[in-house]
Amino acid sequence: MEKTKIMRAEDMDSRQLAELVLDMLHRLNVHHTLWFREVEHQIGFSGALEVMDRAWEKIRPNLLERMGGVLGFSVEDGVPSVLAAKSQAQLLEIADAVAKCWLAQDGLWFQAVEFSRGMNDAKRCNDSTWTRFSPFEAWSIKKLLGLGEEPGLEGLERALNFRMYGRINRQSCRREDGALYFYMDECRVQSARKRREFPDYPCKSAGLVEYSTFAAAIDSRIRTECIGCPPDKHPAEWYCCWKFTLEK
């Protein structure tokens, strides 16, 4: 059936209705994001996080209850039974898949801006996006782990393991002279470029925003210093290194 002749959803066949459902889910996600951005515009980033937290406490159970009703799963303690029934290995695999989808989405957004507006605009949009996503991710992880207001470097080390990147890349930490050193030992993006014999992607400008805002959102006393990040030269053992210290 031609789309021009479709007047209502009831005119669609099963494949077209499936496309409609996916499109509506996309709209749901975008609508959630636009609400956040407008609230941020009106009352600031930290205020928007508080408002979103209050809204999400109501949105999540409502969403799960409605979707569970039509898809045939129950909800136990706020978690879909189909997820709760999975093994630890299966849930870790799902978490890895989500993280890889996130990374692919990030890269495809970058490419879309690059192809339409050029590399400079793509990098500018990328770096600006990290000024929002990194502190949001820190806030989300902090709440998930119950880290409290000032968890210090120990809390930061724990939180770094729960970033999206923590499920994709190989990373490590060490303590020295009261500081925390974080190493990105294996980077999925840079490793892919290396296999294709491309130079490192110069990600330092984004990293400076990403790590400093993440650390400060975990504990406002933490200061961030870049030890090395492309286009900086780096040893074969790691791609980037960041030093975190606690301001006394």
Task: Give an overview of the whole structure.
- By secondary structure, the chain is α+β, with helices and mostly antiparallel strands.
- The protein has two domains: 85 residues, no CATH class; 163 residues, Muramoyl-pentapeptide Carboxypeptidase, domain 2, CATH 3.30.1380.
- Helix content is 60%, strand content 13%.
- It is built from eight helices and six strands; from the N terminus they run ααββααααββααββ.
- A four-stranded antiparallel sheet has the order 3-4-6-5.
- Helix 1 packs antiparallel against helix 2, helix 4 runs antiparallel to helix 5 and helix 5 runs parallel beside helix 8.
- The longest helix has 30 residues.
Summary of the model, kept short:
The protein has 248 residues and is of the alpha+beta class. The chain has helices at 14-43, 45-71, 81-84, 88-117, 119-145, 152-160, 188-195, 204-218; strands spanning 75-76, 79-80, 170-176, 179-186, 222-228, 240-246. It has 2 domains: 1-85, no CATH class; 86-248, Muramoyl-pentapeptide Carboxypeptidase, domain 2 (2-Layer Sandwich).
